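re: ur question from earlier - yeah i can do the single chain one, its not a big deal. heres the input i used so u can compare w yours
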Amino acid sequence: MARAGLTTDRVVAAAADLADEAGFENVTVSALARHFGVKDASLYSHIRNLQDLRTRLALFAGGELVDRIAVAVAGRAGKDALVAFAGAYRAYALQHPGRYAATQIRIDQSLVADSPALHRTAEITYGMLRAYGLDEPDLTDAVRLLRSTFHGYCALEADGGFGAPRDVQKSWDRAVDALHVALEHWPREENNDVTYDPPSTS
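and the output i got, formated as tokens:
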């Protein structure tokens, strides 16, 4: 491809495709330069360095993921919303393994604060959980439970970590059922007048 027409958005989109094809760990400036048929230096007018590239990729993928979740949960509440949220999360993780891996990296908190996608993720997640009657600090604890369950399951599934003959989809459905029961019967904790301002990634 010719150098003309390169933009930051095109570079990040290409990085997302490369992540899915070759693995997030193989997303490098040199690999992208080869993809575009340019020298590494040509990309540095669009990205500062590898860390900047991977951060932009993480925010890009996070936006895609929350868009899918938002569509899935629209008009739903309670268990219906939880099932839709979980299904959209898992589908994205399995269909876009490299992009999904990017969403799991640590991002500078100043960038998190300025990210519309991460704010939207928090709004959707906390809104869904408030429908279960949860307030802080239980909200943050519940977010951490969902995130660790979804991520752990998807990571194990992607790596072929489930060897038993039990259907993986059925186990997933039962896990989401169990989360619903846990949320409905959440052991409440007094907030002790502590003010919480949860980050986008709890």
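DSSP finds nine helices and no strands in the chain. not sure if urs matches, ping me
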